[in-house]
Amino acid sequence: MTGIDFAIFLALKEASSGEATQMLEVCAKSLHRSDPDATVFLLTDEATLPVLPAVPMTPIVMSQRVNVDEILLERTRAYRAFLDLAAFRRDTIFLDHDMVANRSLATTFEGRFDLAATFRTWTQKYPINGGFIAVRHASSPVVRRFYDRVLSIYEDMSAAKDRLWDGEQASLKAALSPLPDPLTAGVYTTMHGESVALFDTSRINYSIWDGYPPHALPDTMTEEMFADMARRDLVHFKGKRKSYMAGYWASLTRATRPMA
């Protein structure tokens, strides 16, 4: 089966649903705009279902209630479980919900590799960000073994901070070792035999002014910032950048730009 799909994980505390569901709605709309034939799967829990936005998505309930105190560990578990479902029938991209696609992401799967990730050059501690992971359906057994390893590494971490946030990036880095040195875009092979494509975040999973402290970011998006982000394939509105997302999407949909 040709084409690509997307899988987004989102589970919410009752009091924090508003901003997150608005971002999810924008993200899903952008994916339908960039890849109209794709299915957008939402990996979630029963507690989150009632607050989901009215935008075409296919919810998959992974549990009755996700432990939000281990949210990224729960996301890793959900990704691994998804790989065993019939829904995993095409090449699939795991994405954060605070992202906007500017153009088709099908080109991500050009070339020969089992999975793909993005890297950041400004940090050696956590160069791999879990907001974008692409997995090839034809490599299903390889991808499942990879996520078994990621999950095993992650679940061995005991610190609360790791189980909530940092552990995902740390476990991805460990599972993808040895990473090329220096980190460059291209395809390499891990010590366990997976073929991995690395993309620079200047194209995919781009966060404007990445690496800068939050106080250095402007309070509002400027025209120059919009133009900078519009040149990228996939923009990630993480941290303080979340406040730019709605305005960026409104400006993007008003503009008459080709999607390819």
Q: Work out the radius of gyration.
A: 17 Å
- Physical arrangement of strands within the biggest beta sheet: 3-2-1-4-7-6-9-8
Q: Distance between termini?
A: 22 Å
**Model regions low in confidence, pLDDT < 50 over at least 5 residues:** none
Rounded mean pLDDT is 92
- Assembly type of the shown chains? single chain
Question: Biggest sheet: strands, sense, closure?
Answer: 8 strands, mixed
Secondary-structure element series:
EHEEHEEEEHHEEHEH
* Total helical elements: 6
Helix vs. strand class: alpha/beta
Beta strand %: 15-25%
Shape: globular
Helix content: 25-40%
Q: Total number of β-strand segments?
A: 10
Give a topology summary.
Layout (H helix, E strand, L loop, with lengths): L3 E6 L7 H18 L5 E6 L12 E6 L7 H12 L8 E5 L3 E3 L13 E5 L8 E8 L4 H16 L4 H16 L10 E4 L5 E6 L22 H8 L3 E3 L8 H10 L6
Parallel strand pairs: 1-2, 1-4, 2-3, 6-9
Antiparallel strand pairs: 4-7, 5-10, 6-7, 8-9
What would you say this structure looks like, in words?
The protein is built from 6 helices and 10 strands. It is of the alpha/beta class and 260 residues long. The strands form 2 sheets. It has an 8-stranded mixed sheet with strand order 3-2-1-4-7-6-9-8, with helices on both faces. Strands 5-10 form a two-stranded antiparallel ribbon. Helix content is 31%, strand content 20%. The model has no long low-confidence stretch (mean pLDDT 92).
Summarize the entry for a quick read:
The protein is α/β, with parallel strands linked by helices and 260 residues long. The protein is 31% helix and 20% strand. It has helices spanning 17-34, 71-82, 140-155, 160-175, 223-230, 245-254, and strands at residues 4-9, 40-45, 58-63, 91-95, 99-101, 115-119, 128-135, 186-189, 195-200, 234-236.
